[in-house]
Amino acid sequence: MTKLFIADLHLSEARPDLTNAFIHFLATKATQADELYILGDLFEFWIGDDEQSPLQQQITHALKTLSEQGCRLFYSHGNRDFMIGKRFARECGMTLLPPIYPCEMAGERTLLLHGDQLCTDDEAYQRFRRITSWPWLQWVFLHLPLSRRVKIAQQIRQGSHKGKQQKSRSIMDVTPGSVNDCFEQHQATLMIHGHTHRPMIHELSLNNGQKVRRIVLGDWNTDLWYLQIDDRDINLISQPITSAE
Questions:
Q1: Greatest CA separation found in the chain?
Q2: Please, is 14 exposed, middle or buried when counting C-beta atoms within 10 Å of its C-beta (0-12, 13-18, 19+)?
Q3: Domains in the chain, please, with CATH?
Q4: What is the pLDDT of residues 89-99, one digit of tens each?
């Protein structure tokens, strides 16, 4: 069985090259897989399942086509598209996952997540994350006119970009203590996540002496990144976006 994992594509109308690369990926590499896991931030931002923009419809069709070909699709919310809902998932033929999803991968107890919840040194972001997860606030936002939601999303995006420029690189990475606690809490030995845009396979020792691996997926910008797990091996793979179209 072959399983693919991707994250942090940040699709938007401003980057048609990324959209083309993703659709090509779905129509070629993903058709050879049994399961595809998208671990958050497929879109640059998400203002509701009801938007039905040309980009949204294009991606929905491509994912639905892959699902109908027999590849099972799973989605973990990111910090950009945390309001993706059941309607979009249903239209794509995709299963929504909880924020931290324990499962078996390659014979190991594995945790799948976007990864932003591990960046606990960034206290300002964690406050924002808690507030935006309030169900009543999401309900209010989703009942605003689409035009108003677009403006709010753009303002949040601009504020986030300015905030990143003012933060150190270390504060935007995962906090080692939070990684350790997550592994120990779920008694896992493998963790797969995105968010930090720092692709790597980390070999770690927990405080209790347990040997574990943390695999960080890369973002799609100049290169596309995906993790492939099959019966024989685990490989973190990249290729230039231009060669993937």
A1: 53
A2: exposed
A3: 3-244 (3.60.21.10)
A4: 999 999 999 99
